[in-house]
TrEMBL record:
A family per Pfam: PhoH
Gene3D superfamilies: 5'-nuclease, P-loop containing nucleotide triphosphate hydrolases
Name the record gives this protein: Putative ribonuclease
Lineage: Bacteria, Pseudomonadati, Pseudomonadota, Betaproteobacteria, Rhodocyclales
Sample GO molecular function, one term: ATP binding
Length: 487
């Protein structure tokens, strides 16, 4: 949905605007959105995301942009980009800026409204409890002034700051969050990667079905009422007397081809000594071990086996089948508590404290080799460590990874822009695995709906060389499972 959420009264097209104006005579066709600084710092292209509606940028917003432009952080980069875009828009104004600047040409038709900058000193008496020196309160004063100035027009403050929106509503002003960056309104609607087939599936889809065996897999070509909604690489299952676990390998119009899964829950198909403990883990291993799948996303709460399965698959394909030259692991370094300050050493040594999950899982994987006693395990540990590289996200720009197994851990803390930067590092023969838990986001201004992990799950679904699975059941311990449920 472009722009902010268009709730009940928001016209979403020119025809809707005209209809509204016809009904309520005096209402203008478009709203006036006042932008808070954090919206521009979060998404510099937000200036072009409001379709036919007008924008208003207060002087205080420009002041705060100026105060936050220095540095190398993502926020500072976005601030500089927003300033450049504002400069480009203002420079294009041929008739002056008093009546607003048309956005149509610069936005390539995305926006047809006008951008207004504050060109006058505004003196509005705020309630005594609000100190006027604060930037937020000065922006609220501008909104109050615009409400008085345009009595027949809907004036709405757009801010990512929850407290700012609460203050605005307390003063009787309309306020909204910025929704354009949200992939989904409700994370419950996120693609899970699996679908349970109804009990009568074979009755309704069996007519004209073709079935054949090839390289140990059974294939079914069928069509029916469910098939148009299935996506390529989506997993389907059916429990009962004749259980089925398969995934969609081809889709052509209303017809699909299902391929049965490799059963990684059987010890003969173990991956580095690891077997799947439930259906979703089996689906995950089918994605991780398939050379045709270049991009895998794994979602799940703590203890569902995301890191263990991924490392087992990466080590097997690096050390045994030699499909990849090495495993590269990276993650966002967002602390849960207070930061412990600068860390000494090389890039790998600085990243080591963040890689506790890697160490824990390597201990499990090293224990599964079971041969050669302590000496054998020590040799295996050294071999494994020589093929796993730990990299920092800070130095990823401009790199290209060839024939690597790239693991991005804690991916829920990445913005969509950072996620794009990382995934586009993949060169020929590289597999990228993103994993995380969208219920544990530590990055400010990121939510379950706007996380980079949610973004890629939604955008990549249905692509022939990517797959996604949401792991449901915790397999860590009965204590961890119970804590996840009741705490």
């Amino acid at each position: 949905m472009p722009a902010t959420r268009k709730t009940a009264s928001a016209p979403t097209s020119a025809s809707a605007s005209t209809a509204k104006r016809g009904t309520h005579g005096k209402h203008p066709p478009c709203k006036l959105f006042v932008l808070d600084t954090n919206v521009l710092m979060h998404d510099p292209t937000s200036l072009f995301r409001f379709e036919e509606h007008d924008l208003y940028v207060p002087i205080m917003t420009l002041e705060e942009l100026d105060n936050n432009k220095k540095g190398t952080s993502e926020v500072a980069r976005n601030t500089r980009q927003a300033s450049r875009m504002l400069d480009e828009i203002v420079s294009s104004a041929v008739d002056g800026i008093e009546n607003g600047i048309a956005l149509g040409t610069l936005s390539h038709g995305q926006a047809s409204g006008r951008l207004h900058l504050q060109t006058e000193a505004i003196d509005v008496r705020l309630p005594a409890a609000l100190p006027t020196a604060r930037g937020d309160n000065q922006i609220l004063a501008v909104v109050m002034h615009l409400v008085d100035k345009f009595p027949g027009r809907e004036v709405i403050l757009v801010s990512k700051d929850i407290n700012m929106r609460i203050k605005a509503r307390a003063l009787g002003l309309a306020a909204q969050d910025y929704f354009n960056d949200k992939v989904l309104e409700d994370s419950d609607l996120l693609y899970s990667g699996t679908l349970e087939l109804p009990a009568d599936f074979w009755d309704t889809h069996g007519r004209g079905m073709e079935s054949w065996k090839e390289e140990g897999h059974t294939y079914y070509r069928l069509s029916g009422p469910l098939t148009p909604d299935l996506l390529v690489n989506e997993f389907v299952f059916q429990d009962g007397d004749n259980p089925l676990q398969a995934w969609v390998k081809e889709k052509d119009g209303r017809s699909v081809v299902l391929e049965t899964l490799v059963d990684y829950s059987h010890s003969k198909n173990n991956i580095w000594g690891i077997t799947a403990r439930n259906r979703e883990q089996n689906c995950a291993l089918n994605l991780l071990m398939n050379p045709e799948i270049d991009f895998v996303t794994l979602l799940g709460q703590a203890g569902t086996g995301k890191t263990l399965l991924t490392l087992a698959a990466g080590l097997t394909q690096t050390l045994e089948s030699k499909r990849y030259s090495e495993v590269i692991m990276t993650r966002v370094t967002v602390p849960v508590g207070e930061d412990i300050g600068f860390l000494p050493g090389t890039e790998e040594e600085k990243m080591a404290p963040w890689m506790g999950a890697l160490e824990d899982n390597l201990d499990v994987l090293n224990g599964t080799t079971g041969e050669g006693g302590d000496w054998g395990r020590a040799a295996t540990r050294d071999l494994i460590r020589s093929r796993i590289k730990i990299k920092s996200l800070n130095f990823m720009r401009g790199r290209t990874f060839l024939n690597k197994f790239l693991i991005i851990d804690e991916a829920q803390n990445l913005t969509p822009k950072q996620m794009k930067t990382l995934i586009t590092r993949a060169g020929p023969g590289t597999k990228v695995v993103c994993m995380g838990n969208i219920a544990q986001i530590d990055t400010p201004y990121l939510t379950e709906g706007s996380s980079g992990l949610t973004f890629v799950v939604d955008r990549f679904k249905g692509w022939a060389h990517s797959g996604h699975i949401t792991l449901q059941r915790g397999e860590r311990s009965r204590l961890a499972d119970h804590a996840a449920e009741v705490l």
